[in-house]
Amino acid sequence: MSARFANSSRNRVIFVILSHPDAESALAKVNLIVLYRPFHNADPPKLHQLWHMCALGPNAAEGFSCDVFELFACSQPYWDPQGLILAVDEESDRLAGYVHAGFAPNAAESGLDYSKGTICGLMVHPDFRRRGIGRELVGKAEDYLRSCGAKSVVAGGGLERNAFYTGIYGGLDPSGFCTRAAAWPQFFAACGYSPADEILILRRDLIRTKDPVNAKLLRHRRHLNLIITDRPTNESWWWFVRYGHLDSLRFELHEKGTENVVAAGQIIGLDLFIPKWGVRSVGIRQFFVPETQRRHGYAQALLLEICRRLKGESVELVEAHVMPDDQPVLDLLKYGNFDVTDRLLTFRRSL
Ligand SMILES: CC(C)(COP(=O)(O)OP(=O)(O)OC[C@H]1O[C@@H](n2cnc3c(N)ncnc32)[C@H](O)[C@@H]1OP(=O)(O)O)[C@@H](O)C(=O)NCCC(=O)NCCS
Description:
Layout: E1 10-13, H1 23-29, E2 32-38, H2 44-53, H3 66-74, E3 84-89, E4 94-105, E5 112-124, H4 133-147, E6 152-155, E7 177-178, H5 184-190, E8 194-205, H6 215-223, E9 224-229, H7 237-243, E10 248-255, E11 261-269, H8 274-277, E12 281-288, H9 298-312, E13 317-322, H10 327-335, E14 339-350
Parallel strand pairs: 5-6, 12-13
Antiparallel strand pairs: 1-2, 2-3, 3-4, 4-5, 6-14, 7-14, 8-13, 8-14, 9-10, 10-11, 11-12
């Protein structure tokens, strides 16, 4: 039997034990006093260490330095120390967990939309789980978001909507929370959230799979040129703040002798995942074929050409993040021998 008491900045968890088979571990839970406070400049080493102790699942990079953590978690132009809230065990001064709140971009991707809050990161050290700390952190994140004008919050961010951790969480994109790392549906249901989106991760192992043979593709080779550029063209502010620190290339198929682009796509280097996944991998995004050029197999030709060249550069894994209702992209990736390997989840709550 247990009882809990909380106040606004400290959460005193008192377990009243009537009879317990394991008195020692039960005693450890008595009088746990947790201080919730915003980020201080000296916190990154502790946050970096916590990241590596939380078993964040297969879609979290590991083995990177504290500088890298700071770059991807705290260096964005909209970074606000009030939005990263830590839970500290007062007695031992150990970091028990943290939550990181932010905002989605506006429709033009030229700035933030402060009415749309997001919970970008959340973790509790395994020694401190199931003591109400995760739930309390979510409440603190909501208070912060509300104070900035948010009307709703999406935990996990959403596809291309997460303001922090691009490059170190989720693979290509931190577009939701990894289903294999935590009991997210149960946890967020307990926090009053409803399930929102499920984002599919599709991958192709370039070593173990072969390209499909297609006569149409051979014909395309004769009248198309591939142009590869490392200069971002027409990318939004949101793209630069999220992908600007990562390697990227844009691929375009042009009709020979013209400036006509019949298909385009972009790749993002996922080198920070090498220590975790053990292979060089690349994310593929923004596949686009102009309306007038559709149904000619140009996207298929471009996808296979990108994969062929990546294989030549010792890349072993290519991944894409897709919404389950984006049938054209799912069909294209299926054709290119990509399989669904994982799912990322988001949860929503009105504030
Ligand atoms: C998800 C997580 C944050 C929960 O933290 P927590 O402090 O243990 O959560 P709480 O104690 O506040 O749990 C609140 C409620 O959620 C539910 N819940 C939490 N963990 C659960 C689990 N493993 N199984 C079932 N329900 C669970 C319960 O209803 C719980 O209430 P109860 O303990 O009274 O039954 C924690 O498990 C974690 O850090 N996991 C890894 C996080 C991660 O991968 N982050 C990456 C994104 S950046």
